[in-house]
Amino acid sequence: MLEIAIIGAGPAGLATALQLHQKGFRPSIYESVSEIRPLGVGLDIKPYATREIVEIGLFDEFCSISVEARESIFLNGWGQQIFAEKCGLHMGYSNEQRFVHRGSFQMMLYDAVRRRIGPDAVQLGARCIGIDQDERGVTVRFEPQRPDAPTEIRADIVIGVDGIKSAVRNQLLPQSVGTHYSGITLWRGVTVMKPWKSGGSILHIGDPVRQGSLIVYPIQNNTDGKGNQLINWVIEQNGRPEIVEDWNHLVTPNEVPNLFEECRLDFIDLGEMVHSAREVYIFPLVDHDPLPHWSFGRITLLGDAAHAMYPRGGNGVCQALVDARVIAEKLASIPDPIEALREYEAERREAVNWIVHANRSDGPEIVRRIAEERSGGKPFAGINSIMPNAEIESIFMEYHRKAGMRRPDDESGKPCAFPSVFTASH
Ligand SMILES: Cc1cc2nc3c(=O)[nH]c(=O)nc-3n(C[C@H](O)[C@H](O)[C@H](O)COP(=O)(O)OP(=O)(O)OC[C@H]3O[C@@H](n4cnc5c(N)ncnc54)[C@H](O)[C@@H]3O)c2cc1C
Q1: Following DSSP, what letter does each residue of 328-340 receive, concatenated?
Q2: Among 35, 140, 372, 398, which is most exposed with the fewest C-beta within 10 angstroms?
Q3: Given ligand 1 and candidates 152, 234, 317, 319, which is best to mutate, with the most ligand atoms within 8 Å of its CB?
């Protein structure tokens, strides 16, 4: 049987292992940290990614740790509605959209890998530091972080799923080592709160460039046994110097800039939400330039290692879950593994690179920027006075199509009513 080594046990590496296992492979996963801990805050799992979770037989478990998304609401900095869209089944998709804590999601996948593939499937404390291939296979070298971790292994193929700072990618494409900083700082927090609105609403508030942006959504039901939810929020501020990329850099709520005083909503107190946060992390909004290649003979890239993107439109982990299925399908159906990795890249790379670029133009969040520009940052009389609904629908229609989630009410092949806003000039 093909020996497959996966470098990185983040959500993407673990999902890849489960997809491969369903196709009859027994991959080995090598992870740099000595212990998997439930780190991070919120992830938005779109219907097309929920479908992948259904495919690997984890939907019920996933439902028990996540919150069903019902509506997505876009507001200006004064709290006026720009646009609203139903989510998942409520919009007519065949699958639910759900919000989840990244740490719970990763632990769910980790437990499933250990249960299905074996308790030794994930080798912890194995930090990849080098990789070489020859005609017969690949040698991976590790800097062990625990005594039982290997220093070197051989495999037939290697999948680099080691995140935005990927050591595998940096070796294969030394010219693309650095990340790309947007000029925007993120404060990512979680707060225990009473459910508000539908109990499954996501709010997108403000202007991503000028005033700053706030995204809010629930990621855990009944988090404290008293019916409260764990609410995930992300505040973005533009024009700050770049800070160190550390997902676990904690700050206090007092350090978060107060950008949304003018935004008064009758169902949630945004100031109180930030003030009473349980945890707040600071992180720079970074992505990676779209890559010219993912597959190099017996080695390929997947997840953030292949396509780290700004979290506009919530597609980063979702695209990784699709990568995981496609690579497993190719390896199961194409006898030559090198050809299979080429086919995987051919099916995925160009489509995902479009999203990386579009997210630099703010993805669908661009409607908030356009509304801000046309209203001069002032309250508007009605959104239609500055931006017709057809124009907003056209932006969402194009973005959703390209991300692989054509809306059920979108007639396939029908051209968008307005010219694309996702151009290099944005
Ligand atoms: C600690 C952490 C917290 C995060 N929090 C959030 C969040 O709150 N919200 C959000 O949207 N995204 C978050 N992300 C990113 C998010 O997980 C990814 O964008 C997405 O889920 C795709 O996952 P991935 O598995 O490709 O990458 P990642 O989740 O980054 O996983 C990569 C894995 O590879 C391991 N690794 C790295 N280098 C090596 C190496 N040299 N050798 C072996 N293993 C290596 C890492 O330890 C990690 O487990 C976080 C990532 C991390 C690592």
Answers
A1: HHHHHH-SSHHHH
A2: 35
A3: 317
pLDDT tens digit sequence for 226-274: 999 999 999 999 888 888 888 899 999 999 998 898 899 999 999 999 9
Which ligand 1 atom is at minimum distance from the Cα of 305? 26
Give the number of domains in the chain.
1
Within-domain flag for 157: yes
- CA angle (277 as vertex; 272, 278 as ends), nearest 5: 150
Q: Which domain holds residue 157?
A: 4-38+102-178+291-360
Beta carbon of 127 within 6 Å of any ligand 1 atom: yes
Domain membership of residue 216 (yes or no) is: no
Q: pTM for the whole thing?
A: 0.95
Which of 46, 113, 127, 162 to mutate for ligand 1's pocket (most ligand atoms within 8 Å of CB)? 162
User: Which residues have a Cβ under 8 Å from the Cβ of 27 and sit 6 or more positions away?
Assistant: 4, 5, 6, 16, 17, 20, 21, 117, 121, 159
Cα of 308 from ligand 1 centre, angstroms: 10
What the block records as the tokens of 181 is 């900083």
Helix/strand/coil for 326:
helix
Give the max Cα distance, the chain.
68
What is the CATH classification number for the domain harbouring 114?
3.50.50.60
| pLDDT tens sequence across 327-369 | 999 999 999 999 999 999 999 999 999 999 888 888 888 899 9
Cβ contacts of 151 within 8 Å, gap of 6 or more: 141, 142, 143, 144
Q: Are 56 and 188 in contact (CB under 8 A)?
A: no
Give me ligand 1 centre to Cα 80, in Å.
35
Radius of gyration of the chain from Cα atoms?
A: 21
What's the 35 CA to ligand 1 centre distance in angstroms?
14
